[in-house]
Amino acid sequence: MSLQRFALHIAIRLAAPLALGLALAGQAGAQTASPDPTAEAEGAKTVALLKQLIRFDTSNPSGDTAALAAFLRTQFEPLGVQIDVIPAPNGKAVHFIARLKGDGSKKPVLVAAHADVVPVERDKWSVPPFEGVEKDGFVYGRGAMDFKGGMAVFARAVMRLAEQKVPLARDVIFLAEADEEQGQYNTTWLARDHWDRMDAEFALNEGGYILQDAAGVVRQVNVTTVEKMSVVLRLRANGPVGHASRPLPSNETANGKLIAALEKLSVYEPGIQLIPQTRAYLAALARQNPGPVARGIDKILAGADARTQAEGERELLKAKSSDAPLLRALMHNTMAITMFKSGQAANVIPGEAEAIINARLLPGATTDQLIDEVKRVVHDDSVIVDFATPASQEATRNYYLAKSKTPESSTSTELYQSLQKNAALIWPQAQTVPVLFEAGTDAVAWRERGVPVYGIYPYPLDADILKGMHGHDERIAVRSLYEGTDWVYRILLDVAKK
Ligand SMILES: [Zn+2]
C-alpha cells in the first residue's frame, strides 16, 4: 500500500461515513483531508523494523533467537532503556526484556511478542521467506503476521515513548520471548525463575484478529480474554503378533481395533457449548452479516433445543464456509487425530498400535469428561485411552485440572478500556469484542498468576492474510502496520503516561 492510499484511508476514517468510504475506495486521488504525518512516519519505522526482524531466521526448531535478541539490544540500548537478556539452558532460546522506567506509582504494563517462527517450505513461497520483501503494499516473510509484525508494532510503541521521554507513572516492559512455537523454554519457563522481570498489572500479547471486510473496512476488533486448553491423549490397542501372509480378523489385531476406534472418533461431533465470549462474538458477526449468517446465528443463540442449534450451525457454516474451522472451534470441544505409531516391518502384523489425539477444550470442560466421552464414542474396552505424557497419569491430570482453573482476563481494566476506546478512534465502524482464542498462547504464564492478558494481532487483516499464518507467502499489509502502530502507541500512552 502506497502512502497515497494510506492517506486516503486516513481521510475516510476521519471524515467520511461508510457509504462515502465505499464510494471512494479505489479512487486514489480523491482525498478529502490531509493525512496525519506523524502516524505515517511512525508507521514507516515499524515497517522498516519488521523487515529487519524477518531477516533473522528464528525458525523453531531450532528456535535460535540469540542473534535477534542481540539486534534488539542495539535498538533499545541507545534509548537508555534497561535491558535483560535471558538465555535458556539449550543456548538457543534467548528471551529479551527492555524496561522503560516509570515513577513506580503504578504497576508495570507489559507487551509480549514471540521471536521464534514456524519453519517454512521454501519452494512453496513466491518470495524468499527471510528477506522482508515489500511488494504490492505488503511486507512478506515468515513471521510477518505471526508474530514479528506484532513485535515490530509493540517495540516501536515502546521506543517512541522512550524517544519522546514521556513521563511515565508505570514501567513499560517489552518482552521478545523465545520458544513459543515449541514450548520447552517459553514464557512459562521464564516465569519460573524470572517472574520479577515480567510481573505486571496487565499485558498484551498475540491473540484476537482485527477483521476487515472485502472493501477493507474494519468491522470487528477481537481481543482474546480466554483460551482453549490443549490436551494430548493417547489411544492404544494390543493384539497378537503374526506373519502378514496369514492375516487375522481385523477386530482381533492392534491395528484393526485402533482403526475402528479412530473411525468412530473422526465422525463424532461434540455438541455446541457457548461461553459468554462466543455469544458476544457470534452476536457481533450477525450484526455485520444480515441474511443467512445472521439467521444461522439467531438459531444457535436462541438455543431452543440441540437440534435447532445444530441446524443453525449448519446454516452458519455454509454461509461462512471460509471461516468454518474457526467457528466450529469456538463452539465445540474439538479433537484432532494427529499422530500414529504402529508396525516394525512390512511383513509383520504388529502387536501394538498407538494414536495421538489433540483435544482443545472450552473453558469449564475437564479432562475427566473428555476421557469419558472418548471412551463412550470408541466403545471398546480393549482400547486404552489416557494422557500422552512422560509424567504420571495422576500428575498430568492434576496439571490440566490446575490449568483449567486459569481465570479469564477482565474487561473492566484500564488496559482493556483503552484498547476499546482507541480502536473506536482508529476504526470507527468496528466493534471491539472480548473473545475466546481457539488455540493456546504464551498468555498462560500471566493469566495463571492472575495477571490479565489481552491477545491481539495488532493490524487489520482478512481470511486471505490468515491463510499465510503458518502457511506460505505469509504477509501483512503496510497500511495495517501503520494503523496498528498508531493504535498500540495510543494505548500505552493512555495507560502509562503520568
Ligand atoms: Zn504466534
Describe the structure.
The model is unreliable at 1-33 (pLDDT under 50). This protein is of the alpha+beta class and 498 residues long. The longest helix has 19 residues, at 478-496. The protein has helices at 3-15, 18-24, 37-54, 66-76, 148-163, 187-198, 254-267, 276-288, 292-302, 306-319, 324-331, 367-378, 393-404, 414-426, 444-447, 463-468, 478-496, and strands spanning 82-87, 94-100, 109-114, 133-135, 138-140, 172-177, 202-212, 218-227, 229-238, 242-243, 334-342, 348-349, 352-361, 384-387, 431-437, 453-461, 475-477. The chain folds into two domains: 36-227 and 409-496, 3-Layer(aba) Sandwich (Aminopeptidase); 229-404, Alpha-Beta Plaits (2-Layer Sandwich), CATH 3.30.70. Helix content is 41%, strand content 22%. It starts with a helix and ends with a helix. Strands 1, 2, 3, 6, 7, 8, 15 and 16 form an eight-stranded mixed sheet that branches. A four-stranded antiparallel sheet has the order 11-13-9-14. Strands 4-5-17 form a three-stranded antiparallel sheet. The protein is globular, with a radius of gyration of 24 Å. Bound molecules: zinc ion. Zinc ion (ZN) is lined by residues 114, 146-147, 206.
